[in-house]
Amino acid sequence: QFRLAESGGGLVQPGGSLRLSCAESGFNPDYRVLGWFRQVPGQEREGEREGISCISVTDGSTYYSNSAKGRFTISRDNANDIVYLQMNNLKPEDTGNYYCAVIPSGVVEGRCVPHWVGYWGQGTQVTVAS
After folding, report:
1. What's the N-to-C CA distance of the chain in angstroms?
2. Which of 57, 2, 3, 61 is nearest to 31 (CA)?
3. β-strand partners of 80
4. What pLDDT shows up at residue 52?
5. Are the C-beta atoms of 120 and 98 separated by less than 8 Å?
6. Interval 78-89: pLDDT, tens
7. Does residue 51 register a pLDDT over 90?
8. In 3D, which of 64, 39, 66, 35 has the Cα closest to residue 50?
């Protein structure tokens, strides 16, 4: 069975850090991209979610949105099938519900968008506020 289980969200002050985790199971072991997407209040559809960062299981290549570059790092624990998103220097505009996702692709280029997502996790809330 397919399974994605996110954790690590919470309330943090501006400038703080959080690490999101997503434990995955049941997917093709070699052919997929794993990603983190953010949905903010006012967005109602999956298609409106912003691709924050993605990583290819096939070749390890990564993608970061402009807002994530230099502050966020995506990584994967291959032995335990966990993908992480380390978020540093958080800003109030980083607030949102963060979803782990599986994209059925061997490459990350052009794929870190909702259209390509084949499976969504349930989401974990991140709130950045004083």
Report:
1. 40
2. 57
3. none
4. 98
5. no
6. 889 999 999 999
7. yes
8. 39
pLDDT single digits (tens) 55-79: 999 889 999 999 999 999 999 998 8
Lookup: tokens for 46: 């999956």
* Residue of 51, 31, 70 whose CA lies nearest to 110: 51
> How far is residue 110's CA from residue 54's CA, in Å, rounded to a whole number?
10
- The pLDDT tens digits for 28-42 are 777 889 999 999 989
CA dist., res. 94 & res. 40, Å (int): 9
User: Contacts from 77-81 at CB under 8 Å and sequence distance 24+?
Assistant: 80/23, 81/23, 81/24, 81/25
pLDDT value at position 102?
95
- Helix (H), strand (E), coil (C) string for the chain: CCEEEEECCEEECCCCCEEEEEEEECCCCCCCEEEEEEECCCCCCHHHCEEEEEEECCCCCEEECCCCCCCEEEEEECCCCEEEEEECCCCHHHCEEEEEEEECCCCCCCCCCHHHCCEECCCEEEEECC
Q: Which of 20, 6, 31 is nearest to 88 (CA)?
A: 20
